[in-house]
Design goal:
Elements (H helix, E strand, L loop, with lengths): L4 H5 L4 H45 L24 E3 L7 E5 L6 E3 L12 E3 L4 E5 L12 E3 L4 E5 L12 E3 L4 E3 L14 E3 L6 E2 L13 E3 L4 E4 L13 E3 L4 E4 L13 E3 L4 E4 L13 E3 L4 E5 L12 E3 L4 E4 L13 E3 L4 E2 L10 H5 L7 E3 L6 E2 L14 E3 L4 E2 L15 E3 L21 E3 L6 E3 L12 E3 L4 E4 L13 E3 L4 E4 L3 H4 L7 E3 L4 E5 L11 E3 L4 E5 L12 E3 L4 E4 L13 E3 L4 E4 L13 E3 L4 E6 L11 E2 L5 E4 L16 H40 L15 H7 L8 E4 L3 E8 L4 E8 L6 H12 L10 E8 L5 E8 L6 H5 L13 H20 L4 E3 L8 E3 L5 E3 L6 E3 L1 H7 L27 H17 L14 H8 L4 H4 L2 H4 L10 H24 L10 H24 L1
Parallel strand pairs: 2-4, 3-5, 4-6, 5-7, 6-8, 7-9, 8-10, 10-12, 11-13, 12-14, 13-15, 14-16, 15-17, 16-18, 17-19, 18-20, 19-21, 20-22, 21-23, 22-24, 24-26, 25-27, 26-28, 28-29, 29-31, 30-32, 31-33, 32-34, 33-35, 34-36, 35-37, 36-38, 37-39, 38-40, 39-41, 40-42, 41-43, 42-44, 43-45, 44-46
Antiparallel strand pairs: 1-2, 47-48, 48-49, 49-51, 50-51, 52-55, 53-54
Length: 1039
């Protein structure tokens, strides 16, 4: 029975009660002291976490989505966005999760003070700098997730102190160095992702000690050497990803015994050897990617036993023999990629019978056997493949049969490739039922009959390749219904009749229209709708009439081939607008009249053939005409002049009247006398002004910084071989630039010698000195020193000495001279990197240096390229310096200054007297960005009557961008137009990125300054474009 409380008290004596009271008091006092101390300690630790988080925030200046706006005193730090605190150790931070917030900055070392931190998740941001060593102090850390950033430097070695780590993901950064051997001590590690970095060296065998590892991602690094056998100790390994390195040797045979592996990717290395029969030992394998190596031998017959296989990628190797006939067991198979091997028996019997089995693969999407040695007929069972099939390519084999009529059953197919085989018979009309078809390649076969009119039903078609067959009849007008057609190949057939106006009116044609080597007749109808066409070939037909004036509207043409026809009349003046022409062939026609002089102004023209016509008159001597290997005018008997190597007769001078000769005898002495008098006057004026300038500048201190090397006039004279013309590398507004070698330090330099006779040269010298003396940035041209002295004649001498840039200027790469570096070309990613470099330099000048600097003369010739094609902004001769306050106050005020900059790149507000501003540089950058990707100068003659490079690009957005960009960008990564779905995805990815870049260029070059971006915004967006482009490309290449 439970007693009441008062009854319990009566059981104790008074002495016991006193003792109990004392004990309680003592315990309470002790607890109070202990509690107070704990409270102080806890408060201190809580404050420590908050201070650490604020320190982290202070190193993140870019927060476009406002992810850190809650990080302030109005909220407890456990309530801040991205922060999770412990339940057990209340108010201690355990998780930092700021993924996909576009944050930009560095990761503060204060992160090491968050001692209870278990997870760091910073996926998809713009962090740069090194990963702080202080992370090694986070002994409770389990997840370090930092992919898709720009972290640099080596992986911190003391990360191995975090012995509780389960996941490390550093994929897609800029990390360097080698893989830490100490990773092997992290026995609990499940995921190790280091792919898409600049990591070098070998794969440490000690990684084999990570027996709990399920994912090892080392893709797209610079690793070399063998795949260590000790990795076979990781029996739990599911993802083994080492594609895109420089690995050699063989795949360890023991890896093929790991039943846990379901993703094996070793593509794009230099591995070799044969593949063992692994179907029984890898039952869980889902993706098997070996493409781009040196593997050989037959395809394992046990493949079909890996019944979970979804992707087989063995393309670009040296596999031989037949294809396993029971691939149909792979019910989950989606992609079968075997292009560029030697697969086939070469007996020509049953090489293609495996297709019968593939009809059981209900999820099949891609079959690519391009460029193998398969022989034999196409089985009719190809018509029974799954309707999920999207790509069917057997290009460049030895298939000899007709195309099965039932191919029209593949209703979801997007690409059919049977080019370069021995196909016979006619083109099935049932192909016209394939409404999703985008690319049809049937060229280089023995197909006969007519082109089916049903092909006009293919409204999604972008590429139609029927070239080099035995096709006859006329071109179906129904092809004009293919409103998305970009490339049409009908060359080398037996086609007759006229070219349908419906086809010539297809404004979608951009990549090319090839009708050459047929028997087409009639005149070339209106071509003005082909405004986006890049290549047109109608050569070797029977076309007649005059060359249409409407060609002048085809502003994107770079190749025009009309040779071997019956065209007559003069070469139309409207061709003057085709400033992007690279190849022009009008030979073997009946053209008359003179050669237009504007052709010598076409800077991109590298092939011109006007031979065997009836042209007459003078042959120009400049531009393409200056190189006999690039031009042919043979067979025009009435032509004269030109360069000596053309071996034409000299032109007869026109006769002059005697009266005129007598008049000249009187006029010429008068003109000469007046000219000499004028020269004498100018000499005295110039002499006086130079004295005044020298007086003003002689007392100016050029550099008061001891770190700059002092050079004399004699040293520069020796360095440049006495300013030899052989050393001359450029001439600018205020002087000349010479290449030189400083003998004492054996350094190649560029010496800019000021022409002090030119008005403003001395001021330009001082401006550039003042602008460059405190600037330090990887994307600015580094100044080594300046020289202010006198030459051996006692004349004042001024020179600036810069770091030498071996790859010249961006101008030389975008617009090479005809007799210069014709083979130079910038890839898409190079252009994007250069754009980022230039933007980074301007962002530094505008926002990160004091005083701020406005460049005022940004253009391609003022952007130089070093050994690694890194861009350096140069020429600060007319730059403007501002303090922060003076810039803000003067930004919008009118100015009496002379307009600063170069024609075409100068902001329009400068012409109205508005003061120099950062927005002016942004405008110049926008024009430069558009020029880089369209390869069109803003000063081209085509930009008249209100049309400018800005409006030209703006009108193309968004659907016509691919028609205005430089064709070399489009052909950058593809030797063939589209080979697989991977290439198709890459093409779409490239188009998306180009649209973004052109849009950015248009925004930056807006007429209203307030509508332009800041350079900080430009840098951020460019990094985002590049990251997105690379991410999509990686996913496409890995699928």
């Amino acid at each position: 029975m439970e007693l009441p409380s008062h009854a319990i008290c009566t059981q104790f004596s008074s002495k016991q009660l006193i003792w109990l009271f004392c004990f309680i008091c003592k315990f309470s006092l002790s607890s109070f002291k202990s509690g107070s101390a704990a409270l102080v300690t806890t408060s201190f630790r809580n404050e420590s976490d908050r201070i650490a988080l604020l320190a982290i925030k202070s190193q993140i200046p870019n927060d476009p989505l406002g992810a850190l706006t809650s990080w302030n005193d109005s909220l407890h730090h456990c309530d801040w966005q991205g922060i999770t605190c412990s339940r057990r150790h209340r108010q201690r931070v355990t998780v930092l999760d700021l993924q996909s917030q576009k944050l930009g900055g560095t990761l503060s070392p204060y992160i090491g003070n968050l001692s209870f931190l278990r997870k760091i998740i910073l996926i998809e941001n713009n962090f740069h700098g090194e990963i702080p060593q202080e992370i090694g102090r986070l002994l409770r850390l389990r997840h370090l997730i930092l992919p898709n950033n720009s972290f640099e430097g080596e992986i911190p070695s003391n990360i191995t102190y975090c012995s509780d780590l389960r996941k490390i993901n550093l994929v897609d950064n800029k990390l360097s160095g080698s893989i830490i051997a100490g990773f092997s001590s992290l026995s609990k590690l499940i995921i190790l992702g280091l792919g898409s970095n600049n990591i070098t060296g070998k794969i440490p065998p000690s990684l084999g000690n990570l027996t709990s590892l399920t994912t090892l991602d080392l893709m797209d690094c610079r690793l070399e050497g063998n795949i260590p056998d000790k990795l076979c100790n990781i029996w739990s390994l599911g993802f083994f990803l080492v594609s895109g390195n420089m690995l050699t040797g063989k795949i360890p045979s023991c890896l093929f015994n790991h039943s846990s592996i379901y993703y094996l990717a070793v593509a794009d290395n230099q591995l070799q050897g044969t593949i063992p029969n692994m179907g029984l030992t890898l039952p869980n394998l889902q993706q098997f990617l070996l493409g781009g190596n040196k593997f050989s031998g037959p395809i394992p017959v046990s493949f079909p036993n890996s019944t979970r296989l979804e992707v087989i990628g063995i393309e670009f190797n040296a596999f031989i023999g037949s294809v396993p006939s029971d691939l149909g067991k792979l019910q989950r198979l989606r992609w079968l990629l075997t292009a560029e091997n030697q697969i086939g028996t070469q007996q020509g019997r049953d090489d293609l019978n495996f297709i019968n089995s593939l009809t059981n693969c209900s999820k099949l999407e891609v079959i690519d056997f391009t460029h193998n040695v398969l022989k034999g007929p196409l089985p009719n069972s190809i018509s029974n493949l799954s309707t999920t099939i999207k790509v069917l390519s057997f290009t460049n084999n030895s298939i000899h049969s007709s195309i099965p009529v039932g191919i029209g059953n593949l209703v979801n197919i997007e690409r059919i490739g049977f080019s370069k085989n021995n196909l016979i018979g006619t083109i099935p009309t049932s192909i016209g039922n394939l409404n999703q078809l985008r690319q049809l390649y049937l060229g280089h076969n023995l197909l006969s009959g007519h082109i089916p009119s049903s092909l006009g039903n293919l409204t999604q078609l972008t590429v139609l390749g029927l070239e080099t067959n035995l096709l006859k009849g006329s071109i179906p007008p129904m092809l004009g219904n293919c409103k998305n057609l970009e490339l049409l190949y009908l060359s080398q057939n037996n086609l007759i009749g006229t070219i349908p106006i419906q086809v010539v009116s297809l404004s979608s044609l951009t990549l090319g229209l090839f009708l050459d080597q047929n028997s087409l007749t009639g005149s070339l109808l209106e071509v003005g709708n082909l405004t986006n066409l890049v290549q047109l070939s109608v050569s070797d037909n029977k076309l007649s009439g005059q060359i249409p004036e409407s060609f002048g509207k085809c502003l994107n043409l770079n190749t025009l081939l009309m040779n071997g026809n019956f065209f007559e009349g003069e070469i139309p003046k409207s061709l003057n607008t085709l400033r992007g022409l690279q190849n022009l062939d009008l030979s073997r026609n009946n053209l008359s009249g003179e050669i237009p002089e504007f052709l010598e102004q076409f800077q991109d023209l590298s092939y011109l053939n006007l031979s065997f016509n009836q042209l007459e008159g003078w042959v120009p001597r400049n531009g393409v005409f200056a190189n006999a290997s690039m031009v042919s005018v043979f067979g025009n008997v009435n032509l004269c002049g030109g360069i000596e190597r053309l071996k034409l007769s000299p032109c007869m001078p026109k006769k002059t009247k005697k009266k005129t000769s007598l008049s000249l005898k009187v006029i010429i002495p008068i003109i000469i006398g007046s000219f000499l008098l004028l020269l004498l006057s100018l000499f005295f004026v110039a002499f006086y002004r130079r004295k005044m300038v020298n007086k003003n500048t002689s007392s100016t201190t050029l550099f008061n910084i001891p770190s700059y090397k002092r050079l004399s006039y004699l040293e520069l004279l020796r360095a440049t071989n006495e300013f030899s013309m052989d050393n001359l590398i450029g001439v600018g507004s205020y002087g000349s630039v010479f290449k030189g070698i400083l003998q004492d330090i054996n350094q190649t330099v560029a010496v800019k010698v000021l022409n002090l006779q030119r008005e403003g040269a001395s001021k330009s010298f001082l401006t550039e000195c003042n602008a460059l003396r405190h600037l330090r940035h990887r994307n600015l041209l580094k100044i080594i020193t300046a020289c202010s002295s006198v030459d051996f004649q006692g004349n004042d001498f001024r020179a600036l000495v810069f770091e030498f840039m071996p790859n010249g200027s961006l101008e030389e790469w975008l617009h090479p001279r005809v007799n210069g570096h014709d083979s130079r070309n910038l890839s898409f990613i190079q252009r994007l990197d250069i754009a980022i470099d230039i933007a980074s330099a301007l962002d530094y000048l505008h926002h990160h240096c004091q005083p701020s600097v406005v460049h005022c003369d940004l253009k391609p010739s003022n952007v130089l390229l070093d050994d690694d094609m890194t861009a350096r902004v140069a020429d600060f001769g007319i730059a403007k310096l501002f303090s922060t306050t003076s810039y803000d106050s003067a930004q919008s005020q009118p100015s009496s200054d002379v307009i600063r900059g170069s024609v075409g790149y100068v902001a329009p507000e400068y012409g109205m007297g508005v003061k120099v501003s950062m927005q002016g540089d942004v405008y110049s950058y926008g024009i430069l960005l558009l020029e880089m990707f369209t390869r069109k100068r803003p000063t081209y003659d085509m930009f008249v009557n209100g049309l400018s490079l800005h409006s030209y690009a703006e009108m193309a957005l968004p659907n016509q961008v691919m028609g205005i960009v430089d064709p070399m960008v489009l052909s950058d990564d593809n030797t063939e137009l589209v080979n697989t779905v991977e290439h198709s995805n890459n093409q779409a990815n490239l188009q998306e990125c180009l649209v973004s870049l052109i849009t950015l260029g248009v925004l930056c070059s807006a007429d209203v300054p307030a509508e332009r971006k800041t350079m900080s915004e430009v840098v951020s967006e460019l990094h985002h474009f590049k990251k997105h482009y690379q991410d999509v490309r990686k996913r496409s290449n890995s699928e």
